[in-house]
Amino acid sequence: MGRVEWNDGLNLGIKEIDDQHKELVEMVNGVLEAFERGEKDTAIDKLLKQLKEYTVHHFNAEERYMEKIGYPDLGEHRRMHAALKQSVKSLQAARFHMEKISVKEVKELLSGWLVDHILRVDYKIVKFVKDGGGKDWSDNIKE
Ligand SMILES: [Fe+2]
Fold first, then answer.
1. Contact 106, 28 (CB under 8 A)
2. For residue 94, what pLDDT is reported?
3. Residue 28 C-alpha to ligand 1 middle, in angstroms?
4. Could you name the CATH architecture of 12-135?
5. Listed residue (104, 116, 113) closest to 2, CA to CA
6. What spacing in Å lies between the alpha carbon of 38 and ligand 1's midpoint?
7. What is the pLDDT of residue 72?
8. Ligand 1 center to 48 CA (angstroms)
9. % helix / strand / coil in the chain, to the nearest 5?
10. 77 C-alpha vs ligand 1 centroid, how far in Å?
11. C-alpha angle with apex 141: 139 to 143, nearest 5 degrees?
């Protein structure tokens, strides 16, 4: 079960957000590795708690950025963030209720949403700015 590999295709060109995405990838990998190594429950739960907190911090930052540039699909994007936060919470709840979760499920849940969200959903923010929306902030985007 491999790690989630960061690649330049995941870079949006907005430094603050890219740095946070990289950090999230590291944290997701930390959780996956802890599962694979069969770490103690307390250790895994601690990592999941940190991941959840950082996810909330990151989504807030991203939503502030979208507000700043007047991003038209903010409402929809916010709903997706809420759903993702919920999926990390359900993972925690499943563990709390001692349900058996496989590493594969954890990987699909965490790396799936992360990479998918960055590539499909966050990428639309960059496209909006590059297409001339949020002009005042276009200098935030590197070519
Ligand atoms: Fe996002």
1. no
2. 84
3. 16
4. Up-down Bundle (1.20)
5. 104
6. 31
7. 93
8. 19
9. 80, 0, 20
10. 6
11. 110
The candidate with the shortest Cα–Cα distance to 48, out of 61, 62, 35, is: 35
27/47 Cα distance (integer angstroms): 8
* Distant-in-sequence, close-in-space partners of 18: CB < 8 Å, separation ≥ 6: 10, 11, 12
Question: What is the CA(55)–ligand 1 centre distance, in A?
Answer: 10
What's the full length of the chain, in residues?
Answer: 143
- Which 3 state secondary structure label does DSSP give 41? helix
pLDDT at 118: 87
Smallest CA-to-CA distance from 110 within 61, 50, 62, 65 is with 50
- Is 70 exceeded by the pLDDT of residue 60? yes
Could you tell me how many helices (H) and strands (E) the chain has, helices first?
A: 5, 0
H-type alpha helices, 69-139? 74-96, 103-116, 123-130
- pLDDT beyond 90 at 46: yes
CB of 29 within 8 A of CB of 51? Answer: no
Q: Residues of 109-121 as b/e, b for ≥16 C-beta within 10 angstroms?
A: bbbebbbebbeeb
